[in-house]
Amino acid sequence: DARVTQTPRHKVTEMGQEVTMRCQPILGHNTVFWYRQTMMQGLELLAYFRNRAPLDDSGMPKDRFSAEMPDATLATLKIQPSEPRDSAVYFCASGLFSGEDQPQHFGDGTRLSIL
Amino acid sequence: AQSVAQPEDQVNVAEGNPLTVKCTYSVSGNPYLFWYVQYPNRGLQFLLKYITGDNLVKGSYGFEAEFNKSQTSFHLKKPSALVSDSALYFCAVRDYGTGGFKTIFGAGTRLFVKA
Asked: Are B50 and B35 in contact (CB under 8 A)?
């Protein structure tokens, strides 16, 4: 089965450091989403792209977070500088949205700990 | 704006008994509804969807969901629970306001199946 691949699976770093998370969507999917999951807030949508163009990043703290898709096989989420409150599991999901009825396919996440 | 509510944080059921995980929704227009499951240290996995047609939708792992338009509900059901069904379950609705690409997830319901 085709899968969404996220790297790294775990990341521990100190406050103030730059963090880059990567996602390889399923080949042929035209929409990519970034989510953050915490116990307190649940699943939050940070940003999403269609055909590599950003459609909505309103869920993302603009001063420190950035999301890009340099090509169709790679999506990145960067945090600079990182803060302890950024500790969470970050998920990437992709989908083929030829219509509204298609589900999203999730990667297994990057567990981020900021000390 | 579309929204989805999962009124129960946790559901406990004995193995072999039927289970129900509740979901209610609010949409303008026709609802596109989904159920996802999340196992520990994994991403969300698609279970089933309702787009149109029969009110009873069958999905993966023996799960089914009943769409009720008058009650605006989409409850997840299984006739006989397994211990391996213990996981976090998310109900979701497609958000038309963003061209159909954005999905609104509920807060999740944790299912515990006791042997």
From this structure: no
Note the residue count of chain B: 115
Structure tokens at B65: 């969901």
Candidates A3, A41, A91, A101, partner chain B, best to mutate (most B CBs within 10 A)? A101
Give the residue on A whose Cα is nearest the Cα of B90. A43
Among the listed residues B18, B7, B1, the one whose alpha carbon sits nearest the alpha carbon of residue B74 = B7
Q: Do B100 and A43 touch (CB under 8 A)?
A: no
**Class of domain A5-96 as given by CATH:** mainly beta
Range of the domain at B44: 3-114
> What 3-state class would DSSP assign to B97?
helix
Chain segment B35-81, per-residue pLDDT in tens: 999 999 999 999 999 988 889 999 999 999 999 999 999 999 999 99
Chain A interface mutation, best of B44, B63, B109, highest count of A Cβ atoms under 10 Å: B44
The per-residue pLDDT for range A11-36, each reduced to its tens digit, is 999 999 999 999 999 999 999 999 99
Q: Name residue A1's amino acid.
A: D
Please, is B92 exposed, middle or buried when counting C-beta atoms within 10 Å of its C-beta (0-12, 13-18, 19+)? buried
Number of structural domains, chain B? 1
CA distance A101 to chain B (A): 6
Hey, where are the domains in chain A? 5-96
